[in-house]
Specification:
The complex is a heterodimer of chains A (48) and B (375). Chain A is mainly α and 48 residues long. Chain A has one helix and no strands. Chain A has one domain. The mean pLDDT of chain A is 92. Chain B has one domain. In chain B, helix 4 packs across helix 17, helix 8 packs antiparallel against helix 19 and helix 14 packs antiparallel against helix 15. The longest helix of chain B has 31 residues. Chain B is globular. The N and C termini of chain B lie far apart (64 Å). The mean pLDDT of chain B is 93. The chains are: A mainly alpha (48), B mainly alpha (375). The interface between A and B is large, with 34 and 43 residues.
């Protein structure tokens, strides 16, 4: 549990900001690396 | 005669007139002002009009509308039981094209930069003596996402619902006034004129895969926000699938309108003089404004940083859109850009960070709930 102090609020803010950035980067990485493959698969299926 | 006078007196006692306080009168005037902003200034009329009307009704004593069993009390159960926010997200999902975010995922990080305001307000609230739970709920105003603010507040500090929801929705409506001066202050004329290159086309398969992948990913990692993300993505899947147009139209149309009316009136009705007119309200409203301003600044500075990294290919004005509030913030970015260069159509580029901001607020709120041990 985060302590109910100013220091606790600072910890909470830093951890939240770091995890938020990491998660958005993960989603961004999935969108940029994996999603274009869906388009390629779609094109491949359409050709067949 | 005495009987008639007593009867008349008893009748007067049942009216709201004898119970009306100066606080009630003030908040009725505030309600009228919100309706004025909605009708005359066209500031988010879909929100401000029912909120303003709710404020008027809440401050007319003796109507029993807000008492248990009263009509608006039943409306408010949707806020209290956290039913409206996911349903609003269902409609938002069905109205939203996530294509700009899928096409340009490198801008997703702006959804984090623009949320720095949440944490500044959180620390500020703690410094002012609020509990860590109250501070978390106040901070989320900076996410500029009304349903998310209601969701987190109901979990962390339900007694502050009135102040936080009114601040969140009012500032969202006032974003076209709050953001542009900060955006201009932090950017040069040359930066504001940067034209971004056209985005790649996004296939139908990608758009259908998106809601499924995101639901699985976020629901697995952050269960406390599953109701919101699940509904947002379900609405989007209804839209993108292309086979249930009738359902997509319903949830993004009349269904969403009904929820908006109920939510708006419920929020407005929380502005009761006896609980709303306090120093705490003033502190929360001020912290909310600081959160919006610093979030805007964080987004613009983050976009400036990305612009430098990309060799001048990113217009820093898209950064402020990372604050969420779809599509208001993206429209603000576009309107500031077009004043510098009438051929610079920034709206679609700003929609990417704007949509990332929706996820940013939800994720920030979800992580906060997990870290504070609230589910």
């Amino acid at each position: 549990m985060v302590p109910d102090t100013v220091l606790g609020a600072i910890y909470l803010s830093i951890i939240d900001m770091v995890l938020l950035s990491m998660l958005l980067l993960v989603i961004g990485a999935i969108l940029s690396k994996i999603f274009p493959l869906f388009s390629k698969i779609e094109k491949f299926i359409n050709k067949k | 005669m005495e009987f008639l006078l007593k009867l008349f007196n008893d009748m007067i006692q049942t009216t709201g007139l004898v119970h009306l306080t100066w606080g009630n009168v003030f908040l009725i005037l505030v309600g009228i002002f919100l309706i004025y902003l909605a009708i005359v200034k066209k500031y988010e009329p879909f929100l401000l009009l029912p909120i303003g009307f709710g404020s008027i009704v809440a401050n007319i004593p003796a109507t029993d509308l807000l008492e248990p069993g009263g009509l608006i009390h039943f409306f408010y159960l949707g806020v209290e039981k956290v039913i409206y926010p996911p349903l609003i997200f269902l409609g938002v999902g069905a109205m939203t094209d996530f294509g700009p975010m899928i096409a340009n995922p490198s801008l997703m990080i702006l959804g984090a930069f623009a949320h720095i305001g949440i944490f500044i307000a959180l620390i500020g609230a703690k410094l002012l003596g609020f509990s860590i739970f109250e501070a978390g709920a106040i901070g989320i105003i900076g996410g500029a996402d009304g349903p998310m603010a209601i969701y987190v507040t109901q979990k962390l500090a339900p007694h502050l619902m009135a102040q936080i929801s009114v601040a969140a929705y009012s500032y969202m409506a006032l974003m076209p006034l709050i953001q542009p001066p900060i955006m201009r202050l932090l950017t040069t004329k040359e930066e504001r004129q940067i034209m971004m290159k056209q985005m790649r086309p996004v296939s139908k398969t990608e758009k259908i895969a998106f809601p499924i992948v995101i639901t699985v990913l976020i629901d697995l990692l952050l269960p406390p926000i599953a109701p919101l993300i699940t509904m947002l993505m379900l609405g989007n899947l209804l839209k993108e699938s292309g086979v249930v147009d009738r359902l997509a139209k319903t949830v993004s149309g009349e269904f969403m309108n009904v929820i908006t009316i109920l939510l708006g009136v419920s929020i407005g009705s929380t502005m009761k003089a006896d609980t709303f007119l306090t120093i705490k309200t003033l502190e929360i409203v001020t912290l909310g404004l600081i959160a919006f301003m610093t979030g805007t600044a964080g987004g613009v500075l983050g976009a400036k940083f990305l612009n430098k990294l990309s060799g001048g290919k990113i217009n820093p004005l898209v950064g402020s859109a990372g604050i969420a509030s779809v599509p208001i913030a993206a429209r603000v970015s576009h309107s500031v850009a077009i004043k510098e260069n009438p051929y610079n159509f920034l709206i679609m580029h700003a929609m990417g960070p704007n949509l990332a901001g929706v996820f940013g607020t939800a994720i920030a709120g979800g992580i906060m709930l997990v870290l504070l041990g609230v589910h």
